[in-house]
Amino acid sequence: MNNITNLPTSIQKIILDISSYKDKMTPQQARNIVMNASVRAEDIEYWQDYHHPLTNSYGRKSLFTNSLFEIMVMSWCPGDISTIHDHGHAQWGAVQVFGYAVFKTELMANIDSDGFVTNFNYWNLLWNELLQASQLQCELIGEIHNKDSCYSYAEIYDEVVRKESLKKITSKYIQFIHCKYHLDLSSSRILSIGCGTGIMEEYLLKNYYLEWDNVLGIDTSESMIKLASKRINAFVGDILDIKYTNSCDIAFASLNVFQSFVPSLMEEAIEKTSRIIKNDGYLIADFITSDHIRRYRNILDSENVVLLRKPSLIEESHNIIQQNEVINVAILNSKLQIMYGGKHNYYLPSICQVRYILGKFFNRVDIFDALTFAYLNPEDDTSPSTQYLIVAQK
Ligand SMILES: C[S@@+](CC[C@H](N)C(=O)[O-])C[C@H]1O[C@@H](n2cnc3c(N)ncnc32)[C@H](O)[C@@H]1O
């Protein structure tokens, strides 16, 4: 071994701990070794390099190297930016940060102002790097939330997807329906199927003077309900298991809820919903068309979150599905989190099929474009904005 006695004791400890390691080391173990060494900024000040050439993006000084690993001090001046990259043969490393570091990528230079990718080579590279980073982070945190695919995603969904769509779509169509059908929302009993984070229901409560006890949300996702419960009455449950009948005046299913069912269960979900609604009551639901993928932005972002989305059209048992794969990069509770959000499927029946199914359980079915509110006729097989709105009366 190289002579290490002139290195700070904390660094010597890291070298000895790694060298005495017999098994294959995981990133979690490497992290523990670094943390247990309690390196202080003063220990490594001697190797700082803030006068590095601009082209290097950051200063680097090697403290120790052998055939297995290397210990390096890296120095970023305020404003220095470096992209994710490997170091020769190194596959991964543990980095202890002193001071404040911000994660950024040149992502925004490779998408247009509407959030669509313009450089697919760059996008695919970035996607794969983020996938690896999210796996590594799962390993480090020691938790993978397989059980509930919406775990943590609920907060991100709320911040980047739902707030914007409430402003641009849902609040506007509620206003449209409220006027067109002369609905007395303030005295209506409302059930929201697949209520998600309850943001739309909270909006209804506040803006249409509904009574707290008259609004109820149901969702299968625990993490969605955890957030929703801060806003409305909501419980974890599956609409397919609900036994109530004739108990609400209006049922909402907003942001493609029925399309998140597998094709064989969508009709059952609509039927079960219709049973809960009182006679003359309404179902208000929105859907996307099979050409919605054209409008599906690859990037959504807010101050603390960047959501990367890869949509594709797939076919399963002769049904068309829009499959959205997502990666979230977020600063949550002051920590950077890179999370693979999995694949989310949305069944894309034709508008005619949806109209036919609803016609089995409702006396009147009106369909409008969800943005322009243009009335869709029975022969229309798409909707100008690629999103449409159903108002069905029992
Ligand atoms: C696209 S999200 C829409 C959420 C919410 N309605 C909104 O407007 O933001 C679809 C929601 O439906 C829920 N969901 C899916 N299947 C369900 C079921 N069988 N019963 C109740 N909720 C369900 C999901 O957990 C998810 O939160």
Give structural notes.
With 394 residues, the chain is of the alpha/beta class. It has 2 domains: 133 residues, no CATH class; 183 residues, Rossmann fold. It is 29% helix and 25% strand. The strands form 3 sheets. A 7-stranded mixed beta sheet has the order 5-4-3-6-7-13-12. Helix 6 links the parallel strand 3 and strand 4. It is elongated. 29% of the residues are buried.
Q: Per the principal axes of the C-alpha atoms, what is the gross shape? A: elongated
SS strand fraction = 25-35%
The CATH topology of the largest domain corresponds to: Rossmann fold
Low-confidence stretches: 144-151
Describe the strand arrangement of the main beta sheet, using strand numbers: 5-4-3-6-7-13-12
- Oligomer kind: single chain
- Going by CATH, the architecture of the largest domain would be 3-Layer(aba) Sandwich
Order of helices and strands: HHHEEHHEHEHEEHEEEEEHEE
Class computed from helices, strands and strand pairing:
alpha/beta
Radius of gyration: 26 Å
Largest sheet: 7 strands, mixed
Task: Please tell me the overall pLDDT.
Answer: 88
How far the N terminus sits from the C terminus, by CA atoms, comes to 81 Å
Q: What top-tier CATH class of the largest domain fits best?
A: Alpha Beta
- How many independent structural domains? 2
The CATH superfamily of the largest domain turns out to be Vaccinia Virus protein VP39
Bound ions, cofactors and other small molecules, one mention each: S-adenosylmethionine
Into which percent range does the helicity of residues fall? 25-40%
Number of helices: 9
Strand elements, count: 13
